[in-house]
Amino acid sequence: MIVVSHLDELTRREPVALTLGTFDGVHRGHRRIIERTVAVARDAGIPSVLMTFDPHPREVIGRQGDPTYLLTSIDERMTLLDGLELDACVVLPFTRDLSVLDAETFFEEYLLRRLNASHIVVGVDHAFGKGRSGSAPELQRLGQKHGIDISVVSQLLVEGIKVSSTTIRNALLSGAIRQANLFLGRPYALRGIVVRGDGVGSTLGFPTANIELTDDNKLLPRSGVYIVAVGFDGNRHYGIMNIGRRPTLSKQMHISVEVHIFITSGNLYGQSMQIALLDRLRDEIRFENREQLIGQIQTDIAFAKERIPKLETDYNNEQFSFFKE
Predict the structure, then answer these.
(1) Which domains does the chain have, with CATH numbers?
(2) pTM score, two decimals?
């Protein structure tokens, strides 16, 4: 897949089959749309192209001061899209000027004149242009006006629930990690660097790697204890992860991410890690003393180790194809 950030970098000027959107998460609903785009392109003997935006439009036109938390960074999106048989991906810089273009101007200037789209594929809820005026019906009207084929892909339902980036974000924020992973079609993952902590985990007998996330806009799931797979040094390790404020041991105000890896050795400081969240064990709890905390951690580890073989079956190798070990 060719990735370009300027439309002039696309040297080919033949017609293309195009899909467009933010594709945050590259979830199962997104992949359904992309698969349709690739199929249309193959049938017509033309390239398949996906247009996405960076930064995310909400970071540009959202309320000032409100953070925008995403399921995937732009780098993660590119990694995930690269495995979906697209010919090219255009990462269009999203600016204030772009945000005020009405749907018809955007359609004519970008999709027709610059990309030469002959067939456009979108989801039924897709919208573009100022005020999201370019809905699927409006896109169909514009397509008819300009002689462009438009395919609108129906909404994907899984277990009767609409699959969308918003649904997945809500699942993560509520701690429903298995539901989020089901909709994503893979485990939700965090990326970060191991930094020096206060060493409290080692004093309890459970050394932890303190993770500083590489993307400030990455959505953190609900605080609690999770079973995780950790990728680094060319291997997949397993462990448990705590997201939270460690109420038993400290009065810290910030949220920390700490991973206890079951089998590892050596100094991990500065190590880049990818952490896939496989299941959620419990909420973060304030214990009366260290002994109670140690006992609970021992229980968490024993349960996680018992559960991992089943999780390895649930998440097959295809679902781990994104995972950089």
Answers:
(1) 2-155 (3.40.50.620), 181-320 (2.40.30.30)
(2) 0.92
